[in-house]
Amino acid sequence: MRMNRPLGVASNSEPARGHRVGAAAVRTLSVAALAAAACALSALPALAASAATGTAASTTTITSPANDVPVPADAGVAVPLTATVTSDPTGGADPTGTVTFAPTNVTPYAAIECTATLSDGTATCDVTPPTGTWGFLLYEATYSGDGTYAPSTSTGEHKVITWDITNTTLTFSPSPATVNKPDTLTATVTDEPMDALADAGGGADQVTFSIGGTAIPGCSDVNVTDPSDGPDNVATCTYTPTATGSVSIEAAYLGDEYALPSSATETLTVGSATLLATKTAVSVSPKTAVEKTLVTLSATVTSSTTPTGTVTFWVSTRKLCVATLSGGKGSCKAAFPNPGPKTIVGDYSGDSTHKTSSGSAPLTITK
Q: % helix / strand / coil in the chain, to the nearest 5?
């Protein structure tokens, strides 16, 4: 249950940043919860009628939580609130009576408001944000007045935060991945009770994807999208694996002023590409050459798509030269010191899409 912007209740000034202020963040109490709160309030003992109050001025100040210094709280755990009431100007007797603490940004109910009796000008009592609630409560304290002093009300931003517990999941598409081919990493961030995180803060909610503690290039501080940007509560980036095997990837939601961080680590399996078959045709020019003169060795590599890579030419175990393919074709030159018949072999290296292959051609060397 969010506590900062329920329907039908005017909000105080918005938080400096965070995702709890948009329409997607609105959450109201259920009818059952309202009924329970009403019952709890009706069960409280009736307060005695207050005596007539005086006219001397008083000042009420909340000292805890301090102004503009949020106090973090755990849902279901009591949080003490403290206020002091002084005479205005100071120097008079300590005011007596009671102080009531109530939130201004939600409809008050028993668990989140309290009343305490002043002692030496100070009043303290506990509020307990119920389990399952999160967000923030802005408190003011109202002094009842006494026979000398008139009532007064505190001012300022006195905030109690109940942390939003988040959950992050990580998926890959496709999975398994293929070496040297892009893969999409998707982190989905949800919170309890499984609402979407609305990125009203212009990037306040972010996810970093990393391997071994090092952010993947282009995958650091990726914004969690809101409904106006795309699929809700999702952050994505692209990762291209460069080797086969498996890689452990972490997606870490960084949290914000009201939400706790969370992360997920998953293993991405990376396999070899399904390679296309190739055919390598080798030719020599001239086919008969004089010893120690240059001969052009050429190769054409064909497939259903145009291969890239290199072709290495050999005679027996002697490496002659290497040609780089362009448009599936490549050539280089070599000389032969000894006369006789030769068999020139061209070995295609293959690439990320194409399989290796070889071809050969005869050559005659004369004196």
A: 5, 50, 45
- List of domains in the chain: 23-162 (2.60.40.10), 166-271 (2.60.40.10), 279-366 (2.60.40.10)
Interval 352-363: pLDDT, tens: 789 999 999 999
For 80, other C-beta atoms within 10 Å of its C-beta total: 14
The backbone torsions φ and ψ at residue 23, rounded to the nearest 5 degrees and listed phi first, read: -60, -35
As beta bridge partners, residue 159 has 138
Instruction: Give pLDDT, residue 110.
Output: 94
Tens of pLDDT, residue by residue over 178-218, are: 988 999 999 999 876 444 444 333 345 899 999 999 999 99
The identity of residue 46, as a single letter, is A
d(Cα 139, Cα 333) in Å, to the nearest integer?
Answer: 86
- Summarised one tens digit per residue, pLDDT across range 147-176 is 999 999 999 999 999 887 889 999 999 999
Distance CA 97, CA 51 (A): 10
pTM: 0.54
- Residues 250 and 264: beta-carbon distance below 8 Å: yes
* 130 Cβ contact partners less than 8 Å away, ≥ 6 residues apart: 1, 75, 76, 111, 112
b/e map 221-249, b = 16+ CB within 10 Å: ebbbbbeeeeebbbbbbebebeeeeebeb
